[in-house]
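Box 3.1 A note on notation
Throughout this textbook, protein chains are presented in two layers. The first layer is the amino acid sequence; the second is a token string describing backbone geometry. Keep the layers aligned when reading.
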Amino acid sequence: MDFKHIPVLFEESIAALNIKADGIYVDCTAGGGGHSSAVADRLSANGRLIAIDRDPQAIQTLTGRFEGRENITIVNDNFFNIKGITESLGISGVDGILADLGVSSHQLDDASRGFSFHSDAPLDMRMSMQGMSAADAVNSLSQQELQKIIYKFGEEKFAPRIASAIVRQRQIKPIETTLELADIIKSAIPAAARREGGHPARRTFQALRIYVNGELDGLSQALLDMFESLNVGGRLAVITFHSLEDRAVKQTFASLCEGCTCPPEFPVCVCGKESRGALPQKALAPTDEEIEENPRSRSARLRVIERKR
């Protein structure tokens, strides 16, 4: 199966890595290989690319796409394990890391994966195609747990009503498909609210996807691990697609860039704190032209940090 993905902020993210021909680079979410190909094309025979993805369908596509490319290593794993991945490959430091945290176009467009509320399919949403599915979650978690997930990860103000409606419906029959769940959500939201802010199921589907895939569980630690994996002068570029991800990246980068915390009236620094990172550019958003060509890019943000020491 061809794993297709439309890279977001493509030129900006590749430029942000400041690629050296003989460097070592990691694409943490390689997907169909769009970003990976661009990185690999800028490397010499002495350079190296590690392409990571947790989705077995992506790995199948990457394996075919990069067949015969000896300086490209493909790894089926979660980038949260980046320290273990690089250690297992005998790599002590890398020159650049790219992480695109969004759901791939393939995962959204392939109805059978169960990510979309626009097509009827088994309610799945698992990026790794293993473990708890979204159907397992909505049919087994308590009303209180569902409410917390929908509110926390979807920032959905109608979370109590939606969780209650899900529990009522599953007492009649298990919730098995994407459109079943979308209809339940729609019925739980007041008519006036349904006319605002896009599809009424969008926030709840986002919340369940984040929960099922553990997308925010340990994200801040994973960002720190990626930064620690950089050589001095190396860069970490992260593309986010919603405020929860972006907040974690922004806060983590800020903490790494924080220097002296002594009161301004102190004549000399006594805390001894030095910043470990620097921001080479401001956060970037897609251009109007990119949004027109790919509406899914609208909420994307690119943040970059460079390791100083």
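The domain at 119-213 is CATH 1.10.150.170 (DNA polymerase; domain 1). The first helix runs from residue 10 to 16.
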